[in-house]
C-alpha cells in the first residue's frame, strides 16, 4: 500500500520489527528501523525520493562504487522530547556538507528539498523507532554511492541516495587511550579529508588495528607532512585543554568541519571558556602533559558527542591525563545534549523540530 506524505510516496513494510528490539539495551548502529528513504539519480537528474521498507539492495558487479569508491555519507541523530516532538540538530549543516562531499567526489549534488522533506517523512513514518531513554537516539545515516555500470575509471552516470536509521544507545563506554600517529595519515592537502568519503575510513582501519594491538583504542591523526601537529581523534575532531584554555585545530583540506566541533566552540565562548582555534603541536601537548598543565583531551562528533581521552601514547611513552571532578568535556556534553533533547533553551537556533 502506498500513500503520499509531504509529496513523498510512502510504501509501508508489511511487518514491523519493532517488537523484537530491546530498547533498554541498544548498541550503536546495530539494528535498523522498518523503513528507509531511497532516491535515484539517472538520466541526468535526481528523481523524487520514496520511503520504502528497509531491505537489501541489488547492484551490478560493475557498479562504480565497488571499483572506484564514489561513496559519501553523513551522520546525524533524531531525538524525542517529553511531548513526543521529533527533534534534529542543525540538519541543514549536514545537508550542506553532504553536497560539499558530493562535489569533491564528482557526485551530482542533491536538491535540498529531497534531503529535508525525505528525511522528515522518513522520521514521521518511523517515529516509534526514536528512543526516549536518556543517552539514546535514532542515529541517521544519509549516504550516496555510484550505482552506474562500467569498468572505465570515470564518474558514474547513476547514483543512489539512501537514508537509513538505527535506534542507538551511547557510542563509547568509558574513556579511551589513544596513540599519536607518527607514520600513517588519514588525509593530505589537496585530498578528500574534509569530505565524509567512505574511503577515508577504510584507510584509517589498518593503522587503528596496529594501535589496538599496542593497547590503544584510537589513533590521534597528525599532519601528513611533518606529523608534528595534532589534527583529529579517530573519526572525530579533537579538543585539548591546557590550563583553562580549550584548543582545537583549524578546519582545512585535512580536518573535517564537524558540526559538534563548531557547536562546542560557540558554546564554550558563551560559557566564558577561552577558546583558541589554531594548530596544536604534538610537542606542546607532551610538554603540557609533563608539567601538569594538560587537563583534558576529548574527541567531538555526532555519534559520541564528546568522547573523553584518558591518556595518550607517543614515541613509546605513555602519558595519563588527570582525573578531574568537573571537566569541560562533561559540562559541554551536557549543554549540547540538553539543547538537542529540548531540556534547555536553545539561544543559537540549533534545534530543529520536524
Ligand atoms: C563526521 C566526522 C567528524 C565529526 O563531525 P560531526 O559533524 O560533529 O559529526 C569529525 N571528523 C571526521 C573525520 C568525521 O568523519
From TrEMBL:
GO terms for molecular function: branched-chain-amino-acid transaminase activity. Its cofactor is pyridoxal 5'-phosphate. Keywords: Amino-acid biosynthesis, Aminotransferase, Branched-chain amino acid biosynthesis, Pyridoxal phosphate, Transferase. It holds the Pfam family Aminotran_4. CDD domains: BCAT_beta_family. It comes from the Bacteria. It catalyses: L-isoleucine + 2-oxoglutarate = (S)-3-methyl-2-oxopentanoate + L-glutamate; L-leucine + 2-oxoglutarate = 4-methyl-2-oxopentanoate + L-glutamate; L-valine + 2-oxoglutarate = 3-methyl-2-oxobutanoate + L-glutamate. Its EC number is 2.6.1.42. The modification N6-(pyridoxal phosphate)lysine is found at residue 196. Pathway: Amino-acid biosynthesis; L-isoleucine biosynthesis; L-isoleucine from 2-oxobutanoate: step 4/4; Amino-acid biosynthesis; L-leucine biosynthesis; L-leucine from 3-methyl-2-oxobutanoate: step 4/4; Amino-acid biosynthesis; L-valine biosynthesis; L-valine from pyruvate: step 4/4. One of its GO terms (biological process) is amino acid biosynthetic process. NCBIfam families: ilvE_II, PRK13357.1. Belongs to the class-IV pyridoxal-phosphate-dependent aminotransferase family. PANTHER family: BRANCHED-CHAIN-AMINO-ACID AMINOTRANSFERASE, SUBGROUP IIII AMINOTRANSFERASE. Acts on leucine, isoleucine and valine. This is Branched-chain-amino-acid aminotransferase. The lineage of its organism: Bacteria, Pseudomonadati, Bacteroidota, Flavobacteriia, Flavobacteriales.
Amino acid at each position: 500500500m502506498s500513500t503520499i506524505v509531504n509529496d513523498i510516496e510512502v510504501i509501508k513494510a508489511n511487518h514491523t520489527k519493532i517488537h523484537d528490539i530491546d530498547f533498554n539495551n541498544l548498541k550503536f548502529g546495530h539494528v535498523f528501523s522498518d523503513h528507509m528513504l531511497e532516491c535515484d539519480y539517472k538520466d541526468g537528474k535526481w528523481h523524487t525520493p520514496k520511503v520504502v521498507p528497509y531491505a537489501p539492495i541489488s547492484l551490478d558487479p560493475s557498479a562504480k562504487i565497488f571499483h572506484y569508491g564514489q561513496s559519501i555519507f553523513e551522520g546525524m541523530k533524531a531525538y524525542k522530547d517529553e511531548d513526543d516532538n521529533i527533534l534534529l540538530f542543525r540538519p541543514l549543516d549536514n545537508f550542506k556538507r553532504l553536497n560539499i562531499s558530493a562535489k569533491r567526489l564528482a557526485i551530482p549534488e542533491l536538491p535540498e528539498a529531497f534531503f529535508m522533506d525525505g528525511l522528515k517523512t522518513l522520521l514521521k513514518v518511523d517515529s516509534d523507532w526514536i528512543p526516549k531513554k536518556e543517552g539514546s537516539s535514532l542515529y541517521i545515516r544519509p549516504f550516496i554511492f555510484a550505482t552506474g555500470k562500467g569498468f572505465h575509471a570515470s564518474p558514474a552516470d547513476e547514483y543512489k541516495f539512501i537514508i537509513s536509521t538505527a535506534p542507538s544507545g551511547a557510542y563509547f563506554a568509558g574513556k579511551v587511550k589513544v596513540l599519536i600517529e607518527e607514520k600513517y595519515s588519514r588525509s593530505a592537502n589537496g585530498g578528500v579529508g574534509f569530505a565524509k568519503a567512505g574511503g577515508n575510513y577504510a584507510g584509517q582501519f589498518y593503522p587503528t588495528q596496529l594501535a589496538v594491538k599496542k593497547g590503544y583504542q584510537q589513533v590521534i591523526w597528525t599532519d601528513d607532512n611533518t606529523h608534528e601537529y595534532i589534527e583529529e581523534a579517530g573519526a572525530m575532531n579533537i579538543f585539548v585543554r591546557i590550563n583553562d584554555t580549550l584548543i582545537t585545530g583549524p578546519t582545512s583540506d585535512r580536518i573535517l568541519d564537524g558540526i559538534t566541533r563548531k557547536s562546542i566552540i560557540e558554546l564554550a565562548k558563551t560559557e566564558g571558556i577561552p577558546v583558541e582555534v589554531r594548530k596544536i603541536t604534538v610537542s606542546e601537548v607532551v610538554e603540557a602533559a609533563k608539567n601538569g598543565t594538560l587537563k583534558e583531551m576529548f574527541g567531538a562528533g555526532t555519534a559520541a558527542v564528546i568522547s573523553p581521552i584518558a591518556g595518550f601514547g607517543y614515541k613509546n611513552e605513555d602519558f595519563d591525563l588527570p582525573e578531574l571532578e568537573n571537566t569541560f568535556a562533561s559540562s559541554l556534553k551536557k549543554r549540547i545534549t540538553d539543547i538537542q533533547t529540548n531540556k534547555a533553551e536553545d539561544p543559537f537556533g540549533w534545534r530543529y523540530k520536524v
